[in-house]
């Protein structure tokens, strides 16, 4: 039997007892061949910088090969509702910057 645990809080999820939510995230480079036409590019670059904090355990070679990446997480119902309020941890990243610096 496959046992799941919540990837956010680590709580083990019992089938038939606990609701389990799956989060799938797809990340890929956009606007490869449309440099001048893509107004969103600046925003995308900003976003990638923000995300570096979470990927600091990867070395730079690995970072460059992350053109297409998927993530899959199992969440309990509590963390699921927490996740939906701040899917990219934008609020906590900003909060962290303020307190650390
Ligand atoms: Zn949880």
Commentary on this structure:
This protein is of the alpha+beta class. The chain has one domain. It has helices spanning 41-51, 60-64, 77-85, 90-100, and strands spanning 4-5, 12-13, 20-28, 68-76. The structure holds zinc ion. Zinc ion (ZN) binds next to β4 and α3.
Main attributes of the structure:
4 helices, binds zinc ion, alpha+beta, 101 residues, two-stranded antiparallel sheet
Number of strands: 4
Q: Give the names of the bound compounds.
A: zinc ion
Rounded to an integer in angstroms, the radius of gyration calculated over CA atoms is 17 Å
Mean pLDDT metric: 76
Domain count, please report it.
1
Strand content: 15-25%
What order do the SSEs take from the amino end to the carboxyl end, as H and E?
Answer: EEEHHEHH
For the largest beta-sheet, the strand count, sense and barrel status come to: 2 strands, antiparallel
Give the helix level as a range of percent: 25-40%
Furnish the topology, listing elements before pairings.
Layout lengths: L3 E2 L6 E2 L6 E9 L12 H11 L8 H5 L3 E9 H9 L4 H11 L1
Bound molecules: zinc ion.
The site of zinc ion has 8 residues, from β4 and α3.
Structure summary:
This protein has 101 residues and is α+β, with helices and mostly antiparallel strands.
